[in-house]
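To illustrate this point, what follows is a protein record of this kind.

___
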Amino acid sequence: IELNGSNLPYRTIIKIHAEDKIDHIYNILKKYMEQFDIEQSILSDLIELQTTYMIKYENIDQYPIIKTFNYNIYDYITSNSNLNNIPINYQFEFNEDKSMTKQIFLELQYFGRRRNFGRAIVRQAD
């Protein structure tokens, strides 16, 4: 893959996955966000949502996953809903071949970008 400005974000994602640095990146982000005046339970929900949404190769066989959040954080982010402190369950799905190799998983980070590969499909669970 040629490295230029148009594919730099995808190349970065591939490198983060290849070097198994996703948790490290989220730890940095969490530490950075803690300097702002964000309620801890909201920050916790936000980080948990993001870490489940961004699929790690090592976890693909765990999907679908249902998680309970304290806030309707996904609806707030995606549909401009008001942020409400109500328990809500979200289901995260990975509808791809779960037996793929890590090499294929990494390649699809770029070649599957238009279908949002590597990100969970999220919906409210019953």
User: Anything to note?
Assistant: The first strand starts at residue 65 and ends at 69. The two ends are 42 Å apart (CA to CA). The chain is about 45% helix and 10% strand.
